[in-house]
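new request in #modeling-help
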Amino acid sequence: MDTLREILDPNFLLGNSVYISLLVGLVCPLVGVYLTLRRLIFMGVALPQISSCGVAFAFALQAWGIIPHVHESEHSLAFIGSTLFTVPTILLLSFMVRRGGGAIESRLGTVYVLAGAASILLLVTNPMGEHGLLDMLKGEIIAVTNADVRRTAATFGAVVLTIFLFRKEFLLVSFDREMAITLKKNVVFWDGLLFLLIGLAISMTVLSVGPLVAFGFLLIPPLIAHMFARNMRQFALLASAIGGFNALLGFCIAYRLDFPVGPTDVALLGILYGLGFPIKKILGLFRAKPEEARIAHSA
Amino acid sequence: MTEESLLILENVAVGYGRRVVLPEVNLRLRRGSFSGLLGANGSGKSTLLKTVLGILPPLGGQITLTPINGQAPVLGYMPQRESLDPIYPLSSYEIVLMAACGRVGPGRFFNKAERQFARQCLAETGAADLASKLFSQLSGGQKQRVLMARALATKPDFMLLDEPTAGIDAHATRAVMEVLKQIHAQRHQTVLLVSHDLGTVREYAQDVIWLHEGKVLHGAVSDLLTRDKIEELLDLELH
């Protein structure tokens, strides 16, 4: 409790890191909900890696002298690199998923390993950026500036607002594309917008906390929430709440035990996921009892 | 006759990509009619239905949906329940409310009237008590009732149902078909029902469209679904 009070203190030295963790914890699961529902979980693994590759590529351009090195614009450059790699890839992959034909997992796996290999090769060619990028890949959430927090909050705010405003359209085209067509919805537009938002969120998350933490928060909170949700609203809110809670608790544990924040967050998510199964079983027993009583009563 | 037709298909070819399933379909469906679309597995029933719905583009010919009061008719589509992914944690009520997306524009919320109407549609199909239950956990017959409520909630001029009785028991089949019969009778709704169940079509439909070996036969149930005609079409002897 003392640790929690300490990290939530406005004068806490790593306050920005706490805010970034919390933002990622709250927002990534909301985006991950759609990846889970559309059975694109593998995409949630591959895309952060692509995004990291985009960041590494953007920094490599500086190292190769193609782009002048300006320290102030590094973050923007990384964001552009990340987004330019992530958004076209997600659009292409989603198109391939829609077309079917199987073997999408193998394609995603290939994209994942190629992006991972390319990131490392690009890092090697860029000794200047190596240190910072390695921290990012490890999930170190330490050196966060006020500007980083503002940028992340603005991007996530735009993503969440758009998802909230158009949630019925996104849900309709995801759940029943055919019905959406009969209702004269432009399914290509809504699909494209949804994937653009997912791409933006992933780019910003990878930039802020690295691919490992992005994987974790995109996928695990929605998987936990899916066990308990009885409708879509519960699903989205529960996933976001689990992510936020995990981010805060993970930060406390990492701070207390001097662990890196990212891996601690992901390990904690794994523990919560594991706990979800027995909790669901127990809740199931409680739910079954009133149902049995109702049946017995009506009989 | 033309004024009364809601759907007109002229020399329409249907299929997927380059694969033609039905090379030439000529049909007229009367407004307020209840038609059964019959055929064996793979005969092109669902393909034809999806082409009429605009889900698949026609490979040729002309499809006309006659405007009603100057507006394109609203289509109430009931897909096969297996086509809907059970991973979505959607309550039955949320499923039905989706139908209002045709009337409530992007960025707008469902108002009280739409929410009430969704509940009313659930009640009309005898599924009011399923509103808060997860759609994925319902039985086959219950799912069909919910999906019929969703088709109704579009406020359709033309209801198109893809195999609404497939895979459900005789009791549930009767219940679903009675609801549909009631809707047709009360609302004078045009209904096109895809089925491979000859008995269901014979009992509930007025007209039948029979897809057989790439040909399309259209007529009254009393003309097409006679013992002699079926024997002739299927080239077998019924006992």
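bot summary: The two ends of chain A are 51 Å apart (CA to CA).
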